[in-house]
Design a protein that fits this description.
Blueprint (H helix, E strand, L loop, with lengths): L22 H32 L3 H20 L14 H13 L11 H17 L11 H24 L11 H18 L13 H9 L8 E4 L1 H9 L6 E5 L5 H16 L4 E5 L12 H13 L5 H14 L2 E4 L13 H4 L1 H8 L3 E5 H8 L11 H5 L7 E6 L10 H10 L10 E6 L3
Parallel strand pairs: 1-7, 2-3, 2-5, 3-4, 5-6
Antiparallel strand pairs: 6-7
Helix pairs in contact: 1-2, 1-4, 2-4, 5-7, 5-10, 6-8, 6-9, 10-11
Length: 441
């Protein structure tokens, strides 16, 4: 192990596993190796099934991948230097350029001394490399089994929620709601999307109590005291604002329940808020275990459409119609799977930045997107959100996030001090959340 510092992360410093009293250190020491172990276990357990799907010769490639992933786990735990990528994936050159640039700027390139954001993203790109360098199994999603299980559990949770939407006529374009009701229902759906970010793969045991979770979601306001920054009403007003060619972009996070809640919000925006187009931004490769890729999104729509549960078929066919007509569009840009903060997007990927700048509202989901928005720095909590965003201001944006990393900004100073005193783990427990809005420049 290289240089480690026996302290918490200093203020105004990038999060890094080199600080031994930080959540980043615990994550790289415990959680990251566990994620790798699960991928290895999946390959060992299912290699015969993989051979049936991918053909003769696949087992040899699986054995090779197992060896590479086992070595990767060792490299992680002993903090070996980062290495260049060799696959033919479209992001290989970009990743290698960034590694070279970091060397030129004397950035440390290993798992513990590097900034946590880059190190974590590098790790998951390295997992992808173990498959991208193979001929037969290159398209495997090593997290697909876990995501499918979560999706199956999420269907039970969504049933009473869909019933509520129908009873309230929120899926009916013909029914006109008063402005206040429209804002209130938009806020309700935003909170569904927010708290679904908590109840996913890392909280999988809760999903066994589907009915209880669904009941809680129908009474979503009971969790308002856990929202440390709540700009939901401003967002609701933004969503219902009349406009020409209104476009909303949703930068997605987790598959399963959260993904279905995001789709439900998107349907409401089309049906009730006059939005003409919703762009869903998903990951181009399997990422951070539970992140949505195109296959997960389409599997979700198909599962809803094929379900015998009340209202499901109508909703699933409706969502498929949105996709067929281009009212919903899927995008899987490379930038979402780079280890860079969003302040570098306009320079690194001007095409994506320009695409986002056409949006009426960008909705960023989850903890990793928040970390990239705030540059993964341990800010003084009261530091203004607009100041932290700096040059990243393509359009009005909101971030919906349950807190699972030790960075936050734009908070009331007294509120942060109270939480520090009463619940020191509030930063990382996933029990607290925020809906943080920044209007256009």
């Amino acid at each position: 192990m290289k240089l480690l510092i026996d302290s918490e992360t200093p203020l105004n410093t990038r999060l890094s596993a080199k600080y031994k009293r930080s959540f980043a250190y615990l994550s790289m020491k415990d959680r990251a190796p566990l994620a790798l172990t699960k991928v290895i276990d999946y390959l060992v357990r299912d290699k015969r099934g993989i051979e049936k799907t991918y053909g003769p010769g696949a087992i040899e490639e699986v054995k090779c991948a197992i060896g590479e992933l086992s070595q990767l786990k060792n490299h992680l735990q002993t903090s070996k230097p980062f290495e260049n990528f060799i696959s033919k994936d479209p992001d290989t050159t970009t990743w290698n350029q960034h590694l070279e640039a970091r060397e030129l700027h004397n950035e440390v390139n290993n798992y513990y001394e590097s900034d946590w954001l880059f190190a974590e993203c590098y790790l998951y790109r390295r997992i992808r490399e173990s498959f991208a360098t193979k001929k037969l199994i290159c398209s495997i999603d090593p997290f697909s089994v876990q995501k499918t299980q979560v999706l199956d559990s999420a269907l039970d949770i969504m049933e009473p929620m869909f019933c509520y939407l129908y009873q309230s006529k929120l899926m009916d374009k013909q029914t006109v709601l008063p402005k206040d009701d429209l804002v209130n229902e938009c806020v309700r759906l935003l909170k569904w999307c927010l708290w679904a970010n908590k109840i996913d793969l890392s909280f999988k045991p809760d999903l066994q109590e589907g009915g209880n979770i669904a009941d809680a979601f129908l009474k979503i306001d009971q969790w308002d005291n856990k929202i440390v920054i709540d700009n939901s009403e401003k967002v609701g007003l933004c969503c219902i604002e009349p406009g020409y060619k209104k476009v909303v972009d949703i930068v997605m996070d987790n598959a399963g329940l959260e993904m279905l809640c995001d789709m439900t919000l998107a349907d409401f925006l089309i049906s009730k808020c006059g939005v003409d187009l919703v762009n869903f931004h998903v990951k181009p490769i399997p990422w951070f275990v539970s992140d949505v890729i195109i296959r997960d999104f389409m599997q979700g729509v198909e599962s809803i459409a094929k379900s015998e549960r009340k209202h499901f078929k109508n909703i699933g066919l409706r969502w498929q119609h949105y996709l067929d007509k281009g009212v919903w569009k899927l995008h899987a840009d490379t930038y979402w799977c780079l280890g860079l903060p969003y302040q570098l997007m306009e320079e690194t990927d001007p095409s994506l930045y320009k695409k986002l700048s056409r949006s009426s509202l960008i909705i960023f989901k989850g903890d990793l997107n928040y970390r990239k928005l705030v540059r993964d720095i341990n800010w003084e909590p009261s530091t203004p959100f607009e100041k932290v965003l700096d040059c990243f201001r393509p359009a009005p944006l909101v971030t919906l996030r349950t807190l699972k990393a030790a960075t936050v900004c734009g908070m009331n100073e007294q509120k942060a001090e109270e939480l520090d005193e009463n619940d020191p783990n509030w930063w990382t427990s996933g029990n607290y959340a925020l809906i943080q809005y920044c209007p256009d420049v």
